[in-house]
Specification:
MetI-like fold; about 65% helix; single chain; two-stranded antiparallel sheet; about 0% strand
Length: about 550
């Protein structure tokens, strides 16, 4: 027994090695702690981390162009945007197909809005094209229907496009019942003989059954199905169509013989008939430039640059606004922070050195703004600062300002600084007060007893101990200031708004979420850089709240 105690592992009461038992106990404690904080962790992930991740993704996401114009963007990869010539006929034919499907799904207007951020006028171009693109397909539809009434009815199309099993199911299906409509299935081999027609008809069938939830068996095909059928019948598969012995063999063979004589559509000319801008180089260059699924275009726009065929370049000087807004935001936020320090430090010092009962009563006045709506406080400043407001009236009454020379305190940077200093002042006073309360008054008395003047005692003894409170208050005020948009929007006018006002505009009004996300990401990066610089210079460990 003594040998086991000396040489063997130490055992717990249940006979397991003590080390393993301790590890198990520690693991259980960690799991319990994780279970306790998991609700808070999930809350932070859902409400904080996930929105930031979504914002960062939106700032580079650009899938709408390639997903809405898949054929066009694919063909544009071989087009030389610097050549001075617009794309050839096959690209316009691909554009016809893409816009046709996009307008049926109501996606062409979204695409136009996206590209309109980069080139003004593209939105109306896509809207106009979406309304008239069906006319191109109807040229072929009318000729097929004039050739044989067989091509007019959806049931006839289904007879050779759909599989026998699907035809039996759809004919037995009651569209008034709650049973699900049988999903369309292509006839075996039809996609080989009529590849373009099969693709167009499958898209049509899916849209009718899934989006419109109508009975496919009774629906007439889209016009693009007819143009696809003409392309197949005049292509390399013409002989295979003539040799077809399945359903509608006679009609398909007759149409194949007649198809080469049909009037054809010049897609390049047809699009310029819709709008001459389709022959403009900048339209096609914009589509080509923004074809990739990920783009740095939003970030370039956020720093007053733009993408071009030759690479990134500065925007015209009249369009450079974001650099000015970023600089103004940083400078004014710093000014507001310094103003809060100058006004809040004396107040915090008085509160910290008064008897507790009196200090608590005065603290209510500091906290009182928190009980009033931010919008109400800002609106009150708008009333006070305007030229016919309380402040100017008082100055005129005191004779300090002439009646016709009232101060411009509203709709400018002055109004923004005054209003935001008042709103953010409590966030400076509270950290300062908390730190100052921990400074023993005996330190000042000891300094004075050693011969220091009041100023020297304050500057050499008291102030250094209050610096952590200044640091904490400055971080709070500065970070809150650069993100404010309500107060600058109401009292700032055109010269007193922040970059956050532009972000809010793009998120809620222009709906350019990509640019708004890029601006927000840059603002977040600037805050992190300043935070890092502050940590290196001052040290974040020196920031205290008391």
């Amino acid at each position: 027994m003594s040998d086991q105690t000396t040489n063997g592992p130490v055992l717990a009461a249940d006979g397991t090695p003590l080390k393993r038992s301790l590890n198990r106990a520690l693991r259980l404690q960690k799991l319990r702690a994780l279970a306790l904080i998991s609700p808070l962790l999930i809350f932070v992930l859902v409400t904080f981390i996930a929105p930031i991740a979504d914002m960062l993704f939106r700032s580079v996401e650009n899938q709408i162009v390639s997903e809405t114009l898949p054929r066009t963007t694919q063909m544009l990869t071989e087009w030389d945007g610097d050549g001075g010539e617009i794309p050839d006929e096959p690209v316009f034919e691909a554009l016809y197909e893409d816009i046709f499907y996009a307008q049926e799904a109501k996606l062409h207007t979204r695409l136009g809005s996206r590209l309109n951020y980069e080139l003004t006028g593209v939105s109306s171009l896509f809207r106009k094209s979406g309304r008239r693109v069906e006319d191109m397909g109807e040229v072929y539809q009318d000729q097929f229907e004039d050739l044989n009434d067989f091509w007019k009815a959806g049931e006839n199309w289904n007879s050779f496009m759909g599989s026998d099993a699907w035809l039996a199911d759809i004919q037995a299906w009651d569209d008034k019942s709650d049973a699900r409509q049988p999903r369309f299935e292509l006839r075996e081999g039809i996609d080989v003989m009529l590849p373009k027609t099969a693709d167009a008809y499958a898209r049509f069938a899916q849209f009718v059954q899934v989006e419109d939830e109508d009975n496919l068996y009774k629906e007439d095909p889209w016009a693009i199905v007819y143009s696809a059928l003409h392309a197949d019948m005049t292509g390399p598969n013409a002989d295979a169509i003539r040799a077809w012995s399945g359903p509608a063999a006679e009609e398909l063979s007759a149409a194949t013989e007649a198809a080469p004589a049909f009037e054809t559509v010049d897609f390049k000319q047809s699009f310029v008939d819709i709008d001459k801008d389709w022959h403009a180089m900048d339209v096609w260059q914009t589509i080509k430039i923004y074809s990739p699924k990920l783009t740095n275009g939003y970030f370039l726009n956020a720093v007053d640059m733009q993408k071009s065929v030759d690479g990134p370049e500065l925007r015209p000087e009249s369009q450079r606004i974001y650099g000015i807004l970023f600089w103004r935001t940083m400078v004014m936020s710093l000014t507001i922070t310094i103003s809060c320090i100058l006004l809040g430090y004396p107040v915090a010092w008085i509160l910290a050195n008064l008897p507790s009962r009196t200090a608590n009563l005065l603290m209510i006045l500091v906290l009182l703004p928190f009980w009033t709506s931010l919008l109400v406080r800002t609106s009150a400043w708008k009333v006070m600062l305007q030229q016919q407001g309380v402040i100017n009236d008082t100055l005129v009454w005191l004779g300090l300002v002439a009646t016709d020379d009232r101060l411009a305190l509203i709709n400018n940077q002055t109004g923004t600084i005054i209003a935001m200093t008042h709103i953010l002042l409590p966030f400076m006073i509270l950290p300062l007060y908390s730190v100052m309360q921990t400074i023993p008054p005996s330190y000042l008395r000891a300094a004075k007893s050693l011969g220091a003047t009041n100023f020297t005692a304050f500057w050499r003894v008291y102030f250094p101990q209050s610096v952590p409170g200044i640091g904490a208050g400055s971080i709070l005020v500065f970070i809150l200031a650069i993100g404010y948009y309500i107060t600058p929007e109401i009292v700032g006018g055109t010269s007193g708004t922040f970059i956050s006002n532009r972000i809010a505009y793009h998120i809620s009004s222009s709906l350019n979420w990509g640019l708004g996300a890029a601006l927000g990401a840059i603002l977040l990066g600037a805050v992190l850089i300043l935070y890092y610089a502050y940590d290196k210079i001052v040290g974040i460990d020196n920031v205290k709240l008391g």
